[in-house]
Every structure is written in C-alpha cells, then in structure tokens.
Amino acid sequence: MNKLNKIKFMAIVIFAFMFALSNLEEVAEAENAVKIAEKTDSEKADSEVEENIDNEDTEDTDENREENIEEDDEFDDGGLNFVVTDIDEGKAYAELTGVVNEKTTLIYIPKKVEYKDTEIIVNSISDSAFAELKGLRKVILDAEIEDVDKDMFKGVSRIDRLIVEVPKKKLEGIRKIFKKKGIKVKEIRAMK
Hints:
Elements: H1 3-20, H2 24-54, H3 62-68, E1 74-77, E2 80-88, E3 91-99, E4 106-109, E5 112-115, E6 118-125, E7 138-141, E8 163-166, H4 171-181, E9 187-190
Parallel strand pairs: 3-6, 4-7, 7-8, 8-9
Antiparallel strand pairs: 1-2, 2-3, 5-6
C-alpha cells in the first residue's frame, strides 16, 4: 500500500471512529484535514508523475503500466472494492463494487484510486455496492458519478439518518438524481 493510500485509509478509520462518537464538530475538522492531506499528496503524486515522464531513462512508462491492467480486474483501495470497467485512450475507469469492512459507518468515494501504480478514475457505483451495510451513516461522494441506481442504499437499516456529502459544484445535480430515482436520505449537503 503506497503512502497516499495509507493516509486515505488512516483518515477513513479516524472518520469512522469520530463519527461513532457522534461528535460532528470533530468529524468536520478531520474531514478538512483529510482534504488538505489529499491535496498535498495529490500535488506530490502529480509532481512525481511529471518527473517520471520527463525522465527518459524510466522503464516503467504509462504504456507499460497500462498493459498490466485489464478490464474486469478486481482490486481494493482505501477499504473499497473496485473493478476495472474500461481502458480508453490511456485512461482507465473503475466501478465501486463494495466495501472491505461491512460494518463501516462512513464511506469516502474518491475521484481516483490506484491500481498497479496507475491512477484509475472512479466513474460508477454498482447497484449492490452498499447492499446490506446496516450501519452506514455517511457517504462522502467526491467521484464524478453521473447516475445511481434507485436501490443503491437497499439494506441500510436507517436510511433516514444517512448523510451524503458531495462537492458544492455537484450538489444540485446529485439532489436532482436522487429525487428522480426516489432515493430519500436524511440530507444531501456540500462537503465542508
């Protein structure tokens, strides 16, 4: 597990613990810290990628890494399970298929995940990704998801307590999608 994934995993564990204690103020502060850490790590990762591209002696090029990735490859990252759905013009895409720990109360869905040293764009969520997650209380949806299934939270025991956070620019779009699909949660709000 690389440094970025370790940081994400640790942040998710911290969020879950704080949320279990129901101290919303501490959760908001921790979420802000994760955003800052992710931004810093993302900038570092971008810088490292640029250095690797500039270095002509590097044997592990993007093309070599992409050859190692195939559609239908299954992997996990940050406590979530994914499957590679498409590889197109040098970009790989994945679908969130579930969680590693079915007792999780908090799920953070990032824009990108890492698999075989390659960033993969998260662009969909399977119909059963959250099936039977009875204790789920909060979903932070940072990925560029354009559609969801009406049964995506089927089995969540207290969906009336579920909070979904999204980036401010996606807030109205997600609200419309949820309304159209008839998905009722406690609140859909902008990430802090």
